[in-house]
Amino acid sequence: MSIAKKAKVDLNNELLAASQHGNLSEVKRLITAKADVAHQEKDHGVSPMMAAAVGGHKEVVHELLCNGAPWNALDRKGYCAGDYALRAGQSAVVDQIVNAGVSAELLFAQIDKNNRKAQGIASSDRVKVDSKEYINRNVRYTSGKLLDQSQDAVMMEWETPLMEAHAKILCPKENLDVLNIGFGMGIIDSALQKHKPKSHTIVEVHRGVLKKMREDGWDKKKGVTIVPGRWQDVMHELGQFDAIFFDTYGEYYDDMREFHSWLPRILRPGGTYSFFNGLCPDNIVFQGVMCQVVQIELAKFGIDAQFAECDINIGEKDWQGVNRKYFWSNTYYLPICKREVAKESKSGTGGQGSRSIAPTSSTDTEEKKT
């Protein structure tokens, strides 16, 4: 090893040690001396920020973040600095890292938006490419699952209690106009039907799913309207609704962000919106970050987003016959998003017109849904 390389290694190791002990002045000195704030030791992949997080050293974490340390770096076992702080009971540091993650995600989203605008790229162009693969795949219904030809699950029966909970918050009373984007196995739609909606609109793109819907008689149910096609292509045809649910497959968070931009036009004041919360489902810290991003972005549209903590029980046997999992936790954060009621329209909605990291307290990621 060259003398220069050894000196760099020594600096990085010293930064790791100083961060672990919360020695802020030494951390600052080492950063000035060009120690790498993103360094991860080779055996376990521990970074200076992970080391600082365990000890609850907020000032050191702040210094590292300000000098470019990634908030979402993972060690060899897949844990981030937020996980280190969470396991050590350092809640203040957890919040600090989550807040840094939220700021970063919002900034990157704006940069991406500006770049697309400068290049003349429509926000839905990428969806046309990415979702086309799923649309053209064969799907089959089997043993409480909807699988594509790669044995990836589009929807599974274990979601039933969650969908019933979603339907209950979406439809607190009967005679509402409801919209669902993405039929899948029809679990949410069956749950919504129990609440006797006035109208029930379902947007579905996959030809195999549409065939199953017709075989099961959904096109003949009273008040049900099936709209075939990509939601991006049919939004202008839809009216306004009291309750909206969003649960797509093979899309990205950017696509759901685009859908959210439609909510002021299609969700009535006082109405409720929800979605399958598969945001970063394999990491509680990352999910906390994305839930807060949703809260901030929906607030711009006058929609208040909260998340109710729900216990779920998913065992390994539930994943038998499935190529890969799409949910890992036994806690589900159910989105409850209410559109504010303007003062002049407080007379109510419904039946009129056209048919504890708790995220609330406290990377372009593809998921199973959204």
**Would you report the number of β strands?**
10
- Main sheet strand line-up: 6-5-4-7-8-10-9
Outline type: elongated
- The CATH superfamily of the largest domain is Vaccinia Virus protein VP39
What would CATH call the architecture of the largest domain?
3-Layer(aba) Sandwich
Q: DSSP strand (E) fraction?
A: 15-25%
Count of separate DSSP helical elements? 14
Class computed from helices, strands and strand pairing: alpha/beta
CATH topology of the largest domain: Rossmann fold
GO molecular function, one term: protein-arginine N-methyltransferase activity
Keywords: ANK repeat, Cytoplasm, Methyltransferase, Nucleus, S-adenosyl-L-methionine, Transferase
Subcellular location: Cytoplasm; Nucleus
Organism: Amorphochlora amoebiformis
Topology of this protein?
Layout: H1 3-20, H2 24-32, H3 48-54, H4 58-66, H5 81-87, H6 91-119, H7 125-135, E1 139-142, E2 145-148, E3 153-156, H8 160-170, E4 177-181, H9 187-193, E5 199-204, H10 207-215, E6 224-228, H11 231-234, E7 241-246, H12 253-260, H13 263-266, E8 267-275, H14 284-299, E9 303-311, E10 331-339
Parallel strand pairs: 4-5, 4-7, 5-6, 7-8
Antiparallel strand pairs: 1-2, 2-3, 8-10, 9-10
ANK repeats: 44-76
Biased composition (Polar residues): 354-363
Region (Disordered): 344-370
